């Protein structure tokens, strides 16, 4: 199949053959073919190359059995942890490449993994088992593009479409339901009608999938260019695997159409979508949020950051308190809080929006000016005195050092003391006097 120069992807030009394959990958393909085997790059690397990208991972499929692949690459370092699935990992030029035997999968009794994998020698059968058409293309420099399922046509149409019957694909591995939504979001593609209908019809199968696998797809989906459309049109899918209170469901419905107002920052978007914020009070459902994050197996650090922001959402940010909040949560979290609050303005009555937006805009400017000041002080490490200075001044070692430093920082933030060694040591003397 030959490609023409014509492209139907706005802003993304379909590549023209030959695809730009790294030298190390071409070497692996060449070694397999010289030994009498078929070999192709396959899946995401072909898709991304056609979209004009530079793939990070290059997967290879081959007619060679795993034992034969090992023989071909006897001069290379190889890893065999995926051997039972037909995968040999070859180390070349300091990178890992997965080389997998063509395979056919039998029944799926747990909606997650095949009961049996059969190795075959037919690339066409191998491609027919894959999830979506744009991931079911294979290529090598000798034979060109193998595209049995019109993946190139779907790329040009900016469309996600399952290979074969979508309900069959989803019953084999239910995670494919969320993968369809994820690719539609990250590529900002539409979803073919039959595939979209099957996503909704089969959504309850996601209950068979582990939280870790769901979490991985959800994080990528929420930060995609097409997240607004997916979160709005397929909200029923997310309620299957995200435990949502009534407040969280109302918040999701109200916030999904507004998601594009946020940068592609996962923490900000998670708070916006799962915080249960559904009216102008900006009071989140912190209990529901924590339960959802824990059940989805988010890292403790992420849970802590999200709950920290949720607790501050109802707080009015002002010129008099923003430095204190900066000291409490740090600059990155402060800007997330400010951005989510700005996005939540759309939940307020129209007559309040302009005034609140102007106030937040002024505050953003003041915060930026403060943070860009080389003499800014809102963290203990920025104080002009240290724990050693306090010890020298007679403060006992131990917890009192930390307590005293925090008191001095509070005085600086409040503007009651300047951040100079002399002024802070004078303030220290007053603190000691007051505690006698």
CATH superfamily of the largest domain: Beta Polymerase, domain 2
What share of the residues does DSSP label as strand, in percent?
A: 5-15%
Based on secondary structure, the structural category is: alpha+beta
Number of helices: 21
GO molecular function: metal ion binding; nucleotide binding; nucleotidyltransferase activity; tRNA binding
InterPro entries: Bact_CCA-adding_enz_type3_sf, CCA-adding_enz_C, NT_sf, PolA_pol_head_dom, PolyA_RNA-bd
Domain tRNA nucleotidyltransferase/poly(A) polymerase RNA and SrmB- binding: 188-229
Organism: Hydrogeniiclostridium mannosilyticum
Question: What does this protein structure show overall?
Answer:
One of its GO terms (biological process) is tRNA processing. One of its GO terms (molecular function) is metal ion binding. Residues 377-427 form the CCA-adding enzyme C-terminal domain. With 436 residues, the chain is of the alpha+beta class. It has four domains: 23-157, Beta Polymerase, domain 2 (2-Layer Sandwich); 158-241, Orthogonal Bundle (Hydrophobic Seed Protein); 243-351, no CATH class; 380-434, Serum Albumin, Chain A, Domain 1 (Orthogonal Bundle), CATH 1.10.246. The chain contains 21 helices and eleven strands. The strands form three sheets. A seven-stranded mixed beta sheet has the order 3-4-5-2-1-8-9. It has a two-stranded antiparallel sheet with strand order 6-7. A two-stranded parallel ribbon has the order 10-11. Strand 3 (77-79) and strand 4 (87-92) form a beta hairpin. Helix 7 (175-187) runs parallel beside helix 9 (211-222) and helix 7 packs across helix 10.
């Amino acid at each position: 199949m030959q490609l023409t120069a014509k492209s139907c992807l706005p802003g993304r030009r379909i590549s023209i053959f030959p695809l730009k394959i790294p030298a190390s990958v071409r070497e692996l393909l060449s070694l397999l073919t010289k030994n009498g085997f078929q070999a192709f790059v396959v899946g995401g690397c072909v898709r991304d190359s056609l979209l004009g990208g530079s793939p990070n991972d290059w997967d290879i499929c081959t007619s060679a059995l795993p034992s034969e692949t090992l023989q071909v690459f006897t001069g290379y370092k190889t890893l065999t942890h995926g051997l039972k699935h037909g995968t040999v990992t070859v180390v070349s030029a300091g990178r890992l490449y997965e080389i997998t035997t063509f395979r056919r999968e039998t029944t799926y009794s747990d909606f997650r993994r095949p009961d049996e994998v059969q190795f075959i020698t037919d690339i066409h059968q191998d491609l027919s088992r894959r999830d979506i058409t744009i991931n079911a293309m294979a290529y090598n420099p000798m034979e060109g593009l193998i595209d049995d399922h019109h993946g190139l046509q779907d790329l040009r149409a900016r469309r996600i479409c399952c290979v074969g019957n979508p309900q069959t694909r989803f019953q084999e591995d239910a995670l494919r339901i969320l993968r369809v939504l994820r690719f539609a979001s990250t590529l900002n593609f539409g979803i073919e009608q039959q595939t979209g209908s099957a996503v909704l019809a089969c959504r309850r199968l996601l209950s068979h999938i582990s939280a870790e696998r769901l979490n991985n797809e959800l994080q990528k989906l929420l930060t995609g260019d097409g997240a607004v459309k997916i979160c709005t049109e397929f909200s029923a899918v997310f309620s299957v695997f995200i435990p949502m209170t009534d407040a969280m469901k109302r918040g999701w419905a109200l916030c999904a159409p507004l998601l594009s107002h946020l940068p592609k920052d996962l923490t900000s978007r998670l708070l916006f979508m799962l915080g249960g914020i559904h009216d102008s009070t900006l009071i989140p459902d912190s209990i529901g949020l924590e339960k959802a994050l824990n059940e989805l197996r988010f890292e403790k650090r992420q849970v802590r950051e999200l709950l920290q922001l949720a607790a501050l959402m109802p707080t009015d940010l002002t010129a008099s308190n923003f430095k204190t909040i900066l000291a409490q949560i740090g600059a990155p979290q402060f800007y997330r809080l400010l951005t989510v609050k700005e996005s939540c303005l759309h939940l307020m009555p129209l007559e309040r929006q302009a005034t609140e937006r102007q106030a937040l805009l002024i505050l953003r400017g003041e915060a930026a000016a403060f943070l860009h000041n080389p003499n800014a002080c809102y963290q203990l490490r920025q104080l002009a005195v240290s724990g050693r200075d306090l010890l020298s001044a007679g403060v006992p070692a131990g917890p009192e050092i930390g307590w005293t430093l925090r008191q001095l920082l509070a005085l600086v933030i409040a503007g009651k003391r300047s951040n100079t060694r002399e002024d802070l040591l004078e303030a220290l003397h007053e603190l000691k006097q007051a505690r006698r």
